[in-house]
Prior knowledge:
Layout: E1 4-7, E2 11-14, E3 20-23, E4 28-31, H1 36-86, H2 96-103, E5 109-113, E6 125-126, E7 135-136, E8 155-160, E9 165-170, H3 185-189, E10 190-195, E11 209-211, E12 217-218, E13 221-222, H4 228-231, E14 235-239, H5 251-261, H6 272-280, H7 289-299, E15 310-311, H8 322-327, E16 334-341, E17 346-352, E18 357-363, E19 372-375
Antiparallel strand pairs: 1-4, 2-3, 5-8, 6-7, 8-9, 9-10, 10-11, 12-13, 14-19, 15-18, 16-17, 17-18
Helix pairs in contact: 5-6
Amino acid sequence: MQVNYKKASAQTHSRNNGTHFTHSTHFLTRANAFTLAETLITLAIIGVVAAITIPSLVKNYNEKAWATAKDVFEKRLEVATRQMNTEEKLAGYSNTMDFVNELKKYIKITRVCDNKNITKCFNKEVIWNEGEDPIDMSTIKNAASLGQDDWDTDTVAVQFANGVNAIIAYNPNTTQDPFNNTFAATAASMAILYDVSGNKNPNMNGKDIAHNTNVKQLAGVTGCLLPEEELGFCISQILGPQNGGYGPLTKEQCEEQKGDLGIAACDYDDDYWAGAVAKCGGVSKMPSQDQLTKLANYIYNTDSVSSSGTTSSLAMDPEKASQFLSASPYSDKFYVWSGQERSSNYAYYCNFNSTDTYWNYYNRYNSSGILAVCLDQ
C-alpha cells in the first residue's frame, strides 16, 4: 500500500483587536490507496475461491430444484388420478392415448405425441445409467420398453403446462375404487417416466429424470444406480424423506395398504418406514440385512463388514457413496432403511458413517433423515 505524507504550511490568524500573529502547525496527512499489484492479487484470490465454491453451490441448487419439482409434480399427478378414480374414469381403457385424453381433463397438458413422434414431446436421448451410452428415446414405443411386458399398450409422450415432459404407458389391467380416497391411483394406472427440466440438460436418470415404480427398465436396460455385478442386486432409486423423496403413511393409509405392501403391522402415528416401503413398491423392494452388508462392503472397499453390530476402522469411498450422500441431510454419513420390521413401532436400518457402520433399529414415526433405497427385483 502506498502512503503519501504532506507538511502543512504556516498560517496567519487575526485577533478581534486587529493584531496579527503567525504560527506554524506541523501535521501529517495520510492518503490511502492500493497498488495495482495488491489489487490484482486480491482479485486472483477471489477468483480462486469462486472457482472452488460456485460449482458446488450450483450443483446443490440444481439438485434441490429438481427434487422440489419432482415432489410438486407427483402430488399434482396423484391428485388428478385420484379424482379420476373417484369419478370412475381411471379404468377401462384399451390404449394409452384414450387414457391420456381423459387425463387432460384433470391436469393441464399442452401437447400430446403418439409413439411414432415421441421425441417431439420428449428428449431425444436419456442417460439411464451414469457413464453408459445414452438411450435413443424414439425406440420407447410400448409398455414393454418400460419393462411392463404384460401390458399390451403403446407409449404416449406429453408436455405438461408446468414444463414437465413425460412418457406414459397405461396399464389396461387398472382397477378403480371410487369409495377409497387413499387409493394409489397413479401407481395402479400407469408407468410414467418424466423430466422436470423439460429439454434442458443433464437428461439423466436420478437427477432431472425420474419415474414411478412401474418403470422397471428403459429399452431393455435396467436403471441400476450402482454396479449390479458387484452388489448382486440392483438399486433403482435412492430417496430421502423430503424434497420429492418419500413421506410417511398415516395409520389409516398403512392399514389399507399393508397387505399389498407386505407390512406386518402399522405404527400408531405417521409411519415413515411404511412410507418408504410404499414408495419402493413393497417390502420385497427394500434391501435385506444381507444386502445392506454387501452394500457396506462395496462402500468401504472391504469384505470385513459384519452383518450385525458395529464394524469400525473403515474408510468410506466418497465416490461410491456420492449418490447416497447427495440424498442424505448429512454431509459425511447416511442411513438406509431395510425391509425388516422389529415391531409396529420400530424397523431396522443400517448406519453408514465415514469410518464405521452398524446395524440398528429406529422409531418408524421419526425418519431422522433415513434413506429409502429401492431395489429392482
